Amino acid sequence: MTIKFSIIIPTLNSLSFLRKCLKSIFDQTYKNYEIIVVDGGSDDGTVEFLKSFGDKIKWISEKDKGQADAINKGIKLSSGNWITWQNCDDYYNNKDALKIFFRGINSNQSKKLIIANIELVNLYGKVLRDVKYFDPYFYSLLYEGMTLTNQACFWNKELNSKIGYLKNLRIYFDYEWFLRILKNFPNCGLHLNYNIASFRLHKKQKTQNQNYNDLINLKKIKNYYGYKKHYSLFFKPYLLIRKFICYLIQGNIFYLSRGLLKFFFGKKNKEYIDS
What we know:
The structure is a single chain. The protein is an alpha/beta fold. The protein has one domain: Spore Coat Polysaccharide Biosynthesis Protein SpsA, Chain A (Alpha-Beta Complex). It has ten helices and nine strands. Strands 1, 2, 3, 4, 5, 6, 7, 8 and 9 form a nine-stranded mixed beta sheet that branches. Strand 1, helix 1 and strand 2 form a beta-alpha-beta unit. Helix 5 (138-144) crosses helix 9.
């Protein structure tokens, strides 16, 4: 099975981050991929930097309507059959990341959305903690929040021809996109139990600077996909048990124990939804 990955990188005046992100892709041991950088019209030297790669990457630099619009442009330019976007401030921390995805896809050809694990890092790349997931599930996403993330996922491009593109929201477009995939194709997801990417946390992220309209849009998204507050009385205990069983099956005993201790005795962490 021929698998070509298309990795889209939306960026705007983030040259220092972009260098690390691109290097993490060039270092991959699996080489059948393309990089598509969609720049929103940077004036920090990004364009000159992109020109230096010649034909090693595809790129455009022009004003856009936001991050989701930039990613959609990248999807339309892509020639791969498996697609993702990697935020320019994030990066792959495993040189075999694409090889791991290749093996997972090749061994599970009925699946259309493949995810893996990430680690959270600070502005300078220091690891804060790991984040482990399990097979994507619509109701888990709807009632628990982002139980997968774009930093460690690929989807089959044929999904775009069937359900369209990302909605042009300031944030939460990723949340809506993954809900749409799992609503339309409930059994299409697969989790690979590998840590393959780093999600950088810093104060300039949009998710740490949400406004009233962002929260209204989040509520609209959840309501559109059938969220009912009184249903959570059933779903949350069920999802907690499901999560417990999934981590046991994976053998993530330390991660599970740490989570239980934090749940019962620690302070609840803010939920990050990367957009």
